[in-house]
Known about the structure:
The chain has a single domain, classed as Trafficking protein particle complex subunit 3 (Muramoyl-pentapeptide Carboxypeptidase, domain 2, 2-Layer Sandwich), CATH 3.30.1380. The protein has five helices and four strands; from the N terminus they run H-H-H-E-E-H-H-E-E.
Amino acid sequence: MxxxxxxxxxxxxxxxxxxxxxxxxxxxxxxxxLGEETVQKVEEAITAxxxxxxxxxxxxxxxxxxxxxxxxxxxxxxGMAIVGKMEYETLEANKDRVVQRITSCPNLNxxxxxxxxxxxxPHLCQVYSSCAVEELNPKYTHSFSKRMCAxxxxxxxxxxxxx
Length: 163
């Protein structure tokens, strides 16, 4: 068998799952060795920088981010390229505000598959998402109102003009 025999979509799924599993493994090991407080600071700094990088990726792909719909499209498209495909539905979308409901998250699914504790995921997801959205367009902000990793049935977020 050659690598090219494996369909690109399957290779992509394997790569994203392996990357998530590796990050979760590092997370668990660092917590055990360094302690919770130190790991939280490091995770937050790394996650924030990861979110900010979305702007560079969006620019390299020519993705616009002039209004809430475009910001959400870039955020979602790049996010799924990084962590894998999510299942979601749009509840509201106009140039000033987008509300999305996520019903399947690859990051959460990988945590569950690995029986890994979901320690800082709600906070880090917010850090990542806020940094990504505000870097894509500083006029907009991101907030979650529901989170599966915190026990809700689905995730729900809003991207909207800052007040």
